[in-house]
Amino acid sequence: MKVNDIIKAFNKLAPSHYVYKWDNSGLQIGDVQKEVKKMLLALDITDSVIDEAIKGNFDMIITHHPFIFKPIKSIDMSTKKGTLIKKIINNDITIFSCHTNLDACKGGVNDVLAKLLDIEDIQILEEKQEKLMKFAVYVPSTHADDLKDKLGEIGVGHIGNYSYCSFQSSGIGSFMPNENTNPYIGVQNELQQVEEIKIETVMYKVDVPKVLDIIARYHPYEEPAYDIYELENKYVSHGVGRIGELPNIMTLEQVSHMLKDKLKSKSIRVYGDMNKPIRKVAVVGGSGADFIPLVAKKDVDVYITGDISYHDAQLANELGVTVIDAEHYYTEKVVLSMIKEYINSIDEKIIVSISNDDNSAAYHLV
Q1: Going by C-beta distance under 8 Å and a sequence separation of 6 or more, which residues neighbour residue 81?
Q2: Which helix (H) or strand (E) holds 86?
Q3: CA 326: distance to chain centroid?
Q4: Are strands 235-251 and 120-130 parallel, antiparallel or unpaired?
Q5: From residue 44, how far is each of 98, 180, 213 by CA, in Å?
Q6: From the CA atom positions of the chain, what is the Rg in Å?
Q7: How many CB atoms neighbour CB 273 within 10 A?
Q8: Alpha carbon of 325 to those of 33, 258, 272, 330: distances in Å?
Q9: Residue 248: in which H helix or E strand, if any?
Q10: In this predicted model, what pLDDT tens digit does every residue of 222-268 receive, in sequence order?
Q11: H or E segment and range at residue 218
């Protein structure tokens, strides 16, 4: 399987238009035409991860955090970053990152974290609404099924948990090919009537260019007839964070110990009354301090995230939010197992491994 095919598969799981403007998810270094037989997964690129990839002859590394986060103005081989880039290129390793789009997508970081804690009735914490479009195209009946399949393959026709959604109706299409035409059906200057199918489906506004490309490539007519118009339907497709309920009421202390055990973390910090009963939970994997004001409006019993500073904890206390800081690394590391399963479901021939040397911010408790 080529790198480009893997990227396309990831865009189905975590569409690239979910990426936040400040982020740099996607291909970092490498050749999209490279064949991938072995893949290494890591949260971050570190010296140890690159050495592991070289020693194990891995073709590709997929990380959660982008290796190139800020624009690079120069590659200085005397710097840490420059040395890593040199090793990566010299050993023909492709680097691909899936960051905020994996945070926000269904089945991504936050869903994995919520399910690991057995949270039920999972809802999105910060919802993102997509602009929906209606797309209708008129095609000869002989080509209708193939065109529907091609549109479905690029993600058109998604409604909730259903894919390949469309409606079709039949009718007679009329047209007259004029001079300087090369009609698929009929001849110049003669009125033609053809049995055609009208295919109607929905898509996101961001998908319009991809849809028009499919029409140009697979519709038999020189001048395909189609309609595109905006819908007023409100559709929440993704968003960061999850909210739900534990199967049973637990104390804050019990939740804390369960969390530490399931995340296999060194330590966690708890801000609140350890005897407080906990049922409703909010989670944001990684750095979630910015969501404290939003969480305060959701009437949850505890908020689980990472990277809580002294002043973040003060704000949470002022807003009445009980917080567990389970650390950035551990609240996101859990997603790598899901990625491994996803890659193997696409191509079971690819050997996929998860690195355990990917924490460049590791520390010692003294």
Answers
A1: 72, 75
A2: helix 80-90
A3: 23
A4: antiparallel
A5: 11, 57, 35
A6: 25
A7: 11
A8: 41, 13, 11, 10
A9: strand 235-251
A10: 999 999 999 988 776 789 999 999 999 999 999 999 999 999 998 89
A11: helix 208-218
- 278 by DSSP, 3-state: which? strand
Domains of the chain listed by start with CATH number = 3-103+334-354 (3.40.1390.30), 118-127+240-328 (3.40.1390.30), 129-235 (3.30.70.120)
Residues contacting residue 56 through CB under 8 Å, at least 6 positions apart: 38, 40, 353
pLDDT 10s digits, 126-165:
998 878 899 999 999 999 999 999 998 888 998 777 889 9
DSSP symbols for 88-114: HHHTT-EEEE--HHHHHSTTSHHHHHH
Distance between CA atoms of 26 and 55, rounded to whole angstroms?
Answer: 25
Residue 179: other Cβ atoms inside 10 A: 6
Residue-wise pLDDT for 287-321, tens only, equals: 999 999 999 999 999 999 999 999 999 999 999 99
List, edge to edge, every strand of the sheet that includes 235-251: 120-130, 235-251, 277-287, 302-306, 323-325, 269-271
* Residue/partner pairs of 16-19 with CB below 8 Å, 24 or more apart: 16/101, 17/101, 17/204, 17/206, 18/100, 18/101, 18/104, 18/105, 18/128, 18/238, 19/99, 19/100, 19/101
pTM, rounded to two decimals: 0.84
**Partners of residue 239 on adjacent β-strands:** 127
How far the first Cα of the chain sits from its last, in Å, is 46
Q: Which residues contact 354 (CB under 8 A, 6 or more apart)?
A: 40, 41, 42, 336, 337, 340
Burial of 185 (C-beta count, 10 Å sphere; 0-12/13-18/19+): middle
Task: Pull the structure tokens for residue 59.
Answer: 């073709």
**Pairwise CA distance, residues 316 & 35, whole Å:** 48
Contacts of 273 (CB under 8 A, 6+ apart): 252, 322
Q: How many residues does the chain have?
A: 366
Q: Are 18 and 99 in contact (CB under 8 A)?
A: no
Q: What is the DSSP string of 288-353?
A: -GGGHHHHHTTT-SEEEEE---HHHHHHHHHTT--EEE--HHHHHHTHHHHHHHHHHHH-TTSEEE
